[in-house]
Amino acid sequence: ESATISMIEMTNMPSDKEHNGTMSKKKTNCIPGSLDSKKVAGKIIVCVNEDPNVSRTIKKLVVEDAKAKGVIIIDQELQNAPFDSGTYPYSQVGLTIGSKILHYINSTKNPSATIVGPIEIRHVEPAPVVASFSSRGPGGLTENILKPDIMAPGVAILAAFGQGIKLNNYDAPGNKSSAFSIRSGTSMACPHVSGAVAFVKSVHPNWSSSVIKSALMTTASITNNMRKNLTNTSDTSASPHEVGSGEIRPVKALDPGLAFETTTEGHLHFLCHNGYKQKAIRSISKDKNFTCPKVSSEELISSVNYPTISIARLSRREGPRKVKRVATNVGLSPNVTYVVSSVNAPPGLLVKVAPRTIVFTESVGTTASFKVFFDGKEASKGYNFGDVVWFDGGSHVVRLVFAVNVE
């Protein structure tokens, strides 16, 4: 799961009081032994980060040990996760803001700065943004299953810690221990998704984990608060290898309309494809007569009934590749018709869906299958991303993301 970001700068303060100080520029990294405490004591250090191997923790400790009042880090590849510097004033900016700070220092006889208490910044645009540390695809085990699955908030999360856990770089004001801290990482996105799963399960106790997963993925958002496509920290459009199906929308997932439930057989075929022996697979399966397909091809894995589609290799010379999906009606109405409202594909990649209409006329829980054909004869080499959107004419919009690697 990927993480999101809404802020790229954070300043920590020991109190609400303002602190004034002169500014001192450090052209290179703040590494141990690089600062003369006699020169920098009581000043605010501006450090241009030229070596990403020197962690922010080290920079902060070096400046703090030199008795400086605070530090501003200028980083051309801005690390977007706020840094928990404890009670020590720390701020991080990108090159645009950093160049203005440097210009001010170089053009002013006695440059100065004021450290103020932290403030809440609302309505940051764009948000969310894919964090630089977020998990990226394609998947390591196979590229025929799209990874990541989905994106969730994972930056600057207020996290609780159990008793006895010591945070290495943080104590509350007055050196008092704290049971809470601001944390960032995929490990912070995970509990958000887990909570969303529990939320959906509480409303639909009979849904399997696979159905819930599908509900979260096919209803995910692919736009930010500016109504534009999700972006990454490079301010470019984020691909499904960065956001998966998009950012979770738990309320929408309560009523996805359709679900793509991955069967036990699909999971077992995946194990066959990855080299597990048939005897070993039978030992963990209820089906003691399970037999691995004679040819466990990549095409077989691409047709595992997953809520996204991925094809690791599509040759321009081999003609169209067929991928099958089975949709289950999990809506409130047993009588409903879905049509393909749009097929979004990059120029040159031909994508066809058959049939383009699926009809459910029996009880809720019935299924209907369809096939998606991909022809990369005129497509650009490399990964091509897009989606197939099913619509019931009412409130259900079901988005099936695909990633196709054309060779």
Characterize the structure shown:
The chain is α/β, with parallel strands linked by helices. Helices cover 21% and strands 28% of the residues. The protein has ten helices and 20 strands. The protein has a five-stranded mixed sheet, with helices on both faces. Helix 4 packs across helix 5 (209-218). The longest helix has 18 residues, at 186-203.
Whole-angstrom Rg? 26 Å
Strand content: 25-35%
Strand order of the largest sheet: 5-4-3-2-6
- Report helical residue fraction: 10-25%
Counting DSSP E segments of at least 2 residues, the number of strands comes to 20
- Taken in chain order, the helices and strands follow as EEHEHEEHEEEEEHHEHHEHHHEEEEEEEE
User: End-to-end distance, in Å?
Assistant: 28 Å
Question: Averaged pLDDT, please?
Answer: 86
* CATH fold label of one domain: Glucose Oxidase, domain 1
> Count of helical segments?
10
**CATH architecture field of one domain:** 3-Layer(bba) Sandwich
Structural class: alpha/beta
Largest sheet at a glance?
5 strands, mixed
**pLDDT < 50 stretches:** 1-17
Specify the CATH class of one domain: Alpha Beta
Shape: elongated
Keywords: Hydrolase, Protease, Serine protease, Signal
GO molecular function: serine-type endopeptidase activity
Family: Belongs to the peptidase S8 family.
InterPro entries: Peptidase_S8/S53_dom, Peptidase_S8/S53_dom_sf, Peptidase_S8_Ser-AS, SBT, Subtilisin-like_FN3
Q: Features of this protein?
A:
5-stranded mixed beta sheet, single chain, 407 residues, alpha/beta, 28% strand, 10 helices, Glucose Oxidase, domain 1
